[in-house]
Amino acid sequence: EYMRAVVQRVIRSQVLTGEKIAGEINKGLMVLLGVEEGDTDADVNYLAKKITGLRIFEDTGGKMNLSLGEIGGDMLVVSQFTLLGDCRKGKRPSFTRAARPEDADRLYQDFVKICRSRGIHVEEGVFQAEMLVRIENDGPVTLILDSRKLF
After folding, report:
1. Is 28:74 a contact under the CB 8 Å cutoff?
2. Alpha-carbon distance 130 to 75, whole Å?
3. Taking CA atoms, which of 57, 96, 122, 151 is between 20 and 30 Å from 73?
């Protein structure tokens, strides 16, 4: 049981539902968030604090040394249950580990609230909607974080 996030440093990102822009940011982080059955507030707190504190933006010396808040960047968060797809058997992913929609939505909303409480401007996708996600990856810098998995 773990919450998983794919975090991408972006120069621009947006989420569209149909023709409507649901969320849009400039420089910052695109976060795809997958909630697994059994995830708790502890998982949400861990990932929100970890992601908002990641020092993955360049300082004046060109080193990845600054966090999202330090650069005044934004965050776009999209719920993404497919991050929990198990592809080990057969050719069709199994999503049995993904949390029930009502649980996933609550923890997703809690993640957004915690990030906002840390001074980050957060835009959102639309939960359970068909979305088009545009990501202009900067670097590219892409990280995968799990709330409990140890490498």
Report:
1. yes
2. 20
3. 151
Max Cα distance, the chain (Å):
48
Pairing of strands 57-58, 64-66: antiparallel
Q: Convert the pLDDT of each residue in 52-94 to its tens digit.
A: 999 999 999 999 999 999 999 999 999 999 999 999 999 999 9
In the chain, the amino acid numbered 16 is: L
Tell me how far CA of residue 49 lies from CA of 85, 104, 144, in angstroms.
25, 18, 15
> Which residues are the active-site residues?
80-82
- DSSP for 19-62 reads TEEEEEESSEEEEEEE-BTT--HHHHHHHHHHHHH---EE-TTS
Residue at token pair 């909303």:
109
